[in-house]
Design goal:
By secondary structure, the protein is α+β, with helices and mostly antiparallel strands. Helices cover about 25% and strands about 25% of the residues. The strands form six sheets. Strands 1, 2, 3, 4, 5 and 18 form a six-stranded antiparallel sheet that branches. Strands 8, 10, 11, 12, 20 and 21 form a six-stranded mixed sheet that branches. About 30% of the residues are buried. This is BgTH12-07745.
């Protein structure tokens, strides 16, 4: 059983697909039309999709879950025919490109003078902005070091190097200057934001003495492929409806699937029973029912498995490892056929969410202005903060 999460910023046509699966992860950015609606897979693929209708501009999130597909298969379905722009996801206007070119030319000129370049000097002269410098760094042109360099990606062989010697305003780096928070609750000190075309998670900290707000990246800038666990965890916490949807599918992965198949086995040979059992694909059943065994769920949080007892057509409930020696310790029982009417009265039936619901709006985040300062690294300094730096901050609990 696996789930993938798709996050769409429909104002610029950016789709992030991420997820975790048995130690593996995926993170990718894809280009989509501005009119894009979340993909609804064909029913035969066995993929369930949370509410997915897009009704307004913003950042929207949808979960794709399946009990028969792994993460890689889910991603392949979601991103089919979409251009992969993970390595260069940022959109830039011609005006922005011109300003960036002027900034680069100015840095090149200053570097010829063999002077140490600092962000404060470059910005003071008016040729460069925080966003210009961050973009040049992300392109691998500019190396950035210093106490306020947490926004910078590592660059192996930069054309130029500068020192980040002063704090930077958070809003100058973010797409549309916004932070994305848990919807309406604002319990977590963390927030998500679009930065250089990627999704990143930032931790909020507040100064002890002057209430300055600081933001520090928890995800790795420039190494976005490794950020899936942090992004997925943030979405679980920020959007309870997504977490609920995924938990429902997880629950169904543990359910006993019953069909009219047991009635065939009562009078069938072992060979016929085995053949019927091992060909129990959902498409072979008219009305498969998902039955929830409450007692079993309390005892074990893993799959309900069935095996055939030796030389009989009886079923064996196997609650342990699938070894023949272990199986022998469990008793056999004749499968009981139950009609729809009987099952409704005697078994607890769980309603499986529809495979898609395009009539209900997709989940969104609470947006708020990205006010504050970026890169609170002063708690890492050995000799205390510089004289002109804002006061030392603390992490929010």
């Amino acid at each position: 059983m696996s789930c993938a999460i798709a996050i769409l910023l429909n104002t610029v046509g950016r789709l992030v697909v991420t997820g975790l699966d048995n130690g593996l992860s995926h993170y990718g950015v894809y280009n989509v039309p501005l009119s894009y609606q979340f993909l609804v897979p064909e029913e035969k693929l066995g993929i369930h999709v949370s509410a997915s209708q897009i009704t307004q501009p913003g950042t929207h999130v949808v979960a794709y879950c399946s009990i028969i597909n792994n993460l890689s298969q889910l991603v392949d379905v979601i991103i089919k025919d979409l251009p992969d722009i993970t390595r260069s996801p940022k959109l830039s206007s011609s005006e922005h490109v011109n300003l960036e070119t002027k900034c680069r030319s100015y840095i090149e000129k200053k570097s010829l003078a063999a002077v140490e370049l600092s962000m404060s000097e470059l910005k003071k002269d008016g040729y460069c902005t925080d966003d210009n410098l961050a973009s040049l760094n992300f392109q691998g042109i500019l190396g950035v070091s210093g106490n306020y360099s947490c926004f910078a990606a590592p660059v192996e062989a930069p054309n130029f190097n500068i020192t980040a010697d002063e704090p930077i305003r958070m809003e100058s780096f973010l797409s549309e200057g916004e932070l994305l928070r848990d919807r309406g609750l604002l319990i977590s000190p963390n927030a998500m934001a679009w930065f250089q075309g990627h999704l990143h998670i930032f931790e909020q900290r507040v100064s002890d003495d002057d209430d300055h707000t600081w933001w520090y990246p928890l995800t790795r800038i420039g190494q976005e492929d490794s950020n899936a666990p942090i992004i997925v965890d943030f979405i679980y916490q920020a959007i309870p409806q997504i977490s609920w949807f995924m938990n429902v599918i997880i629950g169904f992965n543990k359910l006993m699937v019953t069909t009219s198949l047991p009635s065939l086995m009562l009078n069938a040979s072992q060979e016929e029973s085995n053949k019927a059992y091992h060909n129990r694909n959902p498409e072979n059943f008219d009305h498969p029912k998902y039955i929830y065994d409450e007692q079993f769920s309390d005892r074990r949080k893993d799959y309900i498995q069935f095996k055939f007892c030796k030389d009989t057509s009886k079923l064996l409930n196997n609650l342990g490892l699938p070894t023949s020696e272990y199986d022998e310790s469990f008793g056999c029982h004749v499968p009981k056929y139950m009609s729809d009417e009987e099952s409704i009265g005697q078994l607890k039936t769980i309603k499986l969410p529809p495979q898609s619901d395009t009539s209900v709006p997709a989940e969104t985040f609470t947006s708020q202005p990205g006010k504050g300062w970026l890169c609170d690294e002063r708690d890492l300094w050995e000799n205390g903060p510089p004289k002109k730096a804002p006061s030392i901050s603390r992490k929010l609990q």
